[in-house]
Amino acid sequence: MKSLPIIDISPFLDSQASEDARLKTARDLDSACRNVGFFYISHHNITVPELNEILSLAHAFFALPSAEKNTIKMLPPGVGDGDGSRGYQSIGENVTEGKRDWHEGLDLYRPVLSTKPPYSLVMGVNKWPPGEFRRVYEMYIEKLLVLGRAVMHAIALGLGEKEDYFDEWISEPFWVMRAIGYPPLETQEDGGISCGEHTGTLSRSLEVLRDPD
Fold first, then answer.
1. Which of 87, 108, 81, 103 is nearest to 175 (CA)?
2. Is the CA virtual torsion 165, 168, 173, 174 positive or negative?
3. Can you tell me the distance from the alpha carbon of 76 to that of 184, in angstroms, rounded to the nearest whole number?
4. DSSP 3-state assignment of 2?
5. CA dist 71 → 139, 145, 177 (Å)
6. Domain locations in the chain?
7. Which residues of the chain fall short of a pLDDT of 70?
């Protein structure tokens, strides 16, 4: 295998798509899940300009002075407006296996029922950078939720079930989104690493797929 399967998800985003087209996508996705475990999605509902804007806003936020970024700093539950989950984390705050993660991040979660401080864990409100950040990111998140439902509908059909088989479990998913900035890791003398491993296993798997020998 030289590359991962590419699944055209458009039949599950188009209410006018034919049954044959939906069934083909469902079968392709089912095969990818069973035989490979990873796949690419094509012909989805998120455009390249939208992705570029998402990245541009993240870059602009991380380029701000520390004092400005820390106005939306993540705080422990019960401290101010903190819930221990939402907000900005500066470089080195995260620790993985005893090593400081040399990255900064902005954590966002699905809104919960309206509450007031002090917040318990994860039960606060998102802290947004100024300007267009919130509007653009919320639009992007909504599109991802639509795409996620489309993928689950295709998976259900591929399993021989009705498309809405999983709907009761995915109608209100508790999503999490994280924008991450990676400054240069100039030295490892302090034991720092550029974020704990997330895609390393996948990267090694892809290398194996590219070169089975």
1. 108
2. negative
3. 28
4. coil
5. 24, 29, 19
6. 1-44, 47-201
7. 186-192, 195-213
**Where do the DSSP E strands lie in the chain?**
6-8, 40-42, 87-89, 95-96, 99-100, 104-109, 176-181
Record the pTM: 0.84
Distances 26 to 17, 31, 119, 160, 196 between C-alpha atoms, Å: 13, 9, 42, 9, 34
Q: Classify 174 as helix, strand or coil.
A: coil
User: Is residue 191 classed exposed, middle or buried when 0-12, 13-18 and 19+ CB atoms within 10 A define those classes?
Assistant: exposed
Condensed to tens digits (0 to 9), the pLDDT of residues 72-112 reads 999 999 999 999 999 999 988 887 777 778 889 999 999 98
Q: Is the dihedral of CA 174, 126, 84, 73 positive or negative?
A: positive
Q: What are phi and psi of 97, to 5 degrees?
A: 50, 40
CB 9, CB 150: distance < 8 Å: yes
Q: Rounded CA gap, 149 and 63, in Å?
A: 34
Query: Domain 47-201 class?
Result: mainly beta
Q: What does the pLDDT read at residue 99?
A: 76
